[in-house]
Amino acid sequence: MWFNINKIKKIKEKKNYSAFTIIEMLVVLFIISILLLLFVPNLSKQKDQAEKGGETAVVKTVETQIELFKLNNPSGVANEESMVPEYVTSEQWAIYEKYNQNSTE
Fold it and tell me: DSSP state, 76?
Protein backbone atom coordinates (compact mmCIF):
# COMPACT_ATOMS: atom_id res chain seq x y z
CA MET A 1 0.00 0.00 0.00
CA TRP A 2 1.11 3.47 -0.71
CA PHE A 3 -0.10 4.67 2.73
CA ASN A 4 0.52 3.19 6.13
CA ILE A 5 -2.43 2.97 8.53
CA ASN A 6 -0.18 2.99 11.58
CA LYS A 7 1.44 6.17 10.38
CA ILE A 8 -1.96 7.85 9.97
CA LYS A 9 -2.98 6.78 13.48
CA LYS A 10 0.21 8.26 14.92
CA ILE A 11 -0.41 11.55 13.13
CA LYS A 12 -3.94 11.70 14.52
CA GLU A 13 -2.66 10.99 18.03
CA LYS A 14 -0.01 13.70 17.79
CA LYS A 15 -2.49 16.37 16.75
CA ASN A 16 -2.94 18.66 19.69
CA TYR A 17 -6.07 20.74 19.41
CA SER A 18 -5.77 23.97 21.31
CA ALA A 19 -9.08 25.71 21.77
CA PHE A 20 -11.25 27.25 24.45
CA THR A 21 -13.45 24.92 26.38
CA ILE A 22 -17.10 25.70 26.99
CA ILE A 23 -16.34 26.44 30.64
CA GLU A 24 -13.69 28.99 29.70
CA MET A 25 -16.08 30.67 27.27
CA LEU A 26 -18.81 30.81 29.92
CA VAL A 27 -16.41 32.35 32.43
CA VAL A 28 -15.38 35.03 29.93
CA LEU A 29 -19.00 35.81 29.06
CA PHE A 30 -19.86 36.00 32.76
CA ILE A 31 -17.04 38.46 33.42
CA ILE A 32 -18.05 40.61 30.45
CA SER A 33 -21.67 40.69 31.62
CA ILE A 34 -20.60 41.73 35.14
CA LEU A 35 -18.50 44.56 33.69
CA LEU A 36 -21.41 45.70 31.54
CA LEU A 37 -23.70 45.72 34.56
CA LEU A 38 -21.22 47.95 36.36
CA PHE A 39 -20.54 50.43 33.55
CA VAL A 40 -23.85 50.90 31.73
CA PRO A 41 -25.68 52.65 34.62
CA ASN A 42 -22.75 55.03 35.08
CA LEU A 43 -22.79 55.91 31.38
CA SER A 44 -26.49 56.76 31.50
CA LYS A 45 -25.90 58.97 34.56
CA GLN A 46 -23.14 60.80 32.71
CA LYS A 47 -25.45 61.33 29.73
CA ASP A 48 -28.17 62.76 31.98
CA GLN A 49 -25.69 65.11 33.66
CA ALA A 50 -24.39 66.29 30.29
CA GLU A 51 -27.92 67.00 29.04
CA LYS A 52 -28.76 68.88 32.24
CA GLY A 53 -25.55 70.90 31.93
CA GLY A 54 -26.39 71.74 28.32
CA GLU A 55 -29.87 72.92 29.29
CA THR A 56 -28.42 75.05 32.08
CA ALA A 57 -26.03 76.68 29.61
CA VAL A 58 -28.89 77.44 27.22
CA VAL A 59 -30.93 78.98 30.05
CA LYS A 60 -27.99 81.22 31.02
CA THR A 61 -27.60 82.26 27.39
CA VAL A 62 -31.28 83.17 27.06
CA GLU A 63 -31.18 85.10 30.35
CA THR A 64 -28.18 87.05 29.08
CA GLN A 65 -29.98 87.77 25.81
CA ILE A 66 -33.06 88.95 27.75
CA GLU A 67 -30.85 91.41 29.65
CA LEU A 68 -29.41 92.61 26.34
CA PHE A 69 -32.92 93.01 24.92
CA LYS A 70 -33.97 95.06 27.95
CA LEU A 71 -30.92 97.31 27.55
CA ASN A 72 -31.75 97.90 23.88
CA ASN A 73 -35.53 98.19 24.47
CA PRO A 74 -36.20 99.59 27.96
CA SER A 75 -39.95 99.74 27.38
CA GLY A 76 -40.16 96.40 25.53
CA VAL A 77 -41.40 93.12 26.97
CA ALA A 78 -39.11 90.12 26.61
CA ASN A 79 -41.37 87.43 25.19
CA GLU A 80 -41.04 84.84 22.47
CA GLU A 81 -42.21 87.13 19.66
CA SER A 82 -39.68 89.82 20.51
CA MET A 83 -36.75 87.52 21.34
CA VAL A 84 -36.77 84.66 18.85
CA PRO A 85 -35.96 86.20 15.51
CA GLU A 86 -33.13 88.45 16.66
CA TYR A 87 -31.73 87.31 20.02
CA VAL A 88 -32.30 83.56 20.47
CA THR A 89 -33.49 80.59 18.45
CA SER A 90 -36.87 78.98 18.94
CA GLU A 91 -35.18 75.85 20.33
CA GLN A 92 -33.34 77.90 22.94
CA TRP A 93 -36.55 79.69 23.91
CA ALA A 94 -38.40 76.37 24.25
CA ILE A 95 -35.70 75.01 26.58
CA TYR A 96 -35.81 78.24 28.58
CA GLU A 97 -39.60 78.04 29.00
CA LYS A 98 -39.41 74.36 29.94
CA TYR A 99 -36.77 75.14 32.55
CA ASN A 100 -38.86 77.99 33.99
CA GLN A 101 -41.96 75.79 34.19
CA ASN A 102 -40.02 73.08 36.03
CA SER A 103 -38.48 75.55 38.47
CA THR A 104 -41.84 77.17 39.35
CA GLU A 105 -43.55 73.84 40.08
Answer: -
